[in-house]
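Thread amino acids onto this structure.
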């Protein structure tokens, strides 16, 4: 077992929100160092025991091993993993089989896959793999989904600035998993809002990785309870942990994309409780 460790974020409850400063909110729910060149950088949250993070080969081959915090000889001994590449084309090797992931592609690795590594594709040096893992109690086959090959849903309206393309990759009617639901949403030019109305789903923790955010732009991520909302200012390639009790919505100062991923009680994408903007405070 490797001596590397995974920093931990402990579970929180709604009663803590009113007393939190901006710095405390960011320390609790924002991950601002997801992608570090030459490293696999992970964070363990006790909300549904999700592990999320990034792998940036930067010309090297990075191996995903076991960690003391998950008490496993290898990472997927008791877990499953969704991988989305948000950088240049890269290669993921899983138990001797290699998969080429272009930007926006998603790879599912099920429980029991032992040897996992990440590398840049030949002629490329900019792959950035986003990792989302949850405990798994059964095994499903490894599946690669290329951009546009999943379930594609066109949502929103340009008149309300939330026209967006939602790509569902790992879900109950797509790539099979034990717990993970995962996909990518891209806002159309001129659209900045997602998702409206805001919503909660007490049955699942959801995490977001915002990417393709222009350098001089930010996303305002709304969180908290309906009558006690807060916000986080998020830059490109930063991630948010959204507890099951927290609503979530966001607006950018420019169009952006994000990887959404969930784990918890069920895999029903539309199992959500709406929080109309007229009810928020």
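Threaded sequence (281 positions):
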């Amino acid at each position: 077992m490797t001596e590397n460790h995974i920093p931990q974020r402990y579970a929180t409850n709604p009663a803590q929100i009113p007393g939190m400063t901006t710095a405390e909110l960011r320390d609790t729910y924002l991950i601002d160092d997801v992608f570090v060149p030459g490293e696999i950088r992970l964070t363990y949250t006790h909300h549904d025991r999700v592990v999320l993070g990034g792998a940036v080969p930067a010309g090297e081959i990075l191996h995903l091993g076991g960690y003391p915090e998950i008490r496993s000889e290898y990472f997927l001994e008791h877990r499953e993993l969704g991988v989305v590449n948000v950088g240049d084309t890269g290669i993921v090797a899983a138990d001797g089989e290699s998969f080429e992931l272009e930007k926006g592609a998603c790879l599912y690795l099920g429980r029991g896959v032992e040897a996992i590594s990440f590398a840049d594709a030949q002629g490329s040096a900019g792959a950035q793999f986003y990792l989302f893992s949850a405990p798994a109690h059964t095994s499903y086959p490894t599946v690669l989904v290329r951009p546009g090959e999943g379930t594609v849903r066109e949502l929103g309206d340009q008149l309300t600035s939330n026209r967006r393309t939602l790509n569902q990759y790992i879900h109950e009617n797509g790539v099979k998993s034990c717990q993970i639901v995962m996909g990518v949403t891209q806002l159309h030019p001129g659209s900045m809002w997602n998702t409206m109305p805001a919503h909660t789903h007490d049955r699942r923790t959801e995490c977001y990785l915002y990417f393709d955010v222009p350098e001089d732009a930010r996303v305002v991520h709304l969180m908290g309870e309906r009558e006690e909302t807060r916000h986080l200012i998020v830059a490109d390639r930063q991630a948010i942990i959204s507890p099951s009790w927290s609503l979530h919505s966001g607006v950018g100062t420019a169009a952006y994309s994000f990887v959404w991923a969930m784990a918890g009680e069920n895999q029903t994408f539309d199992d959500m409780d709406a929080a109309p903007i007229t009810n928020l405070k």
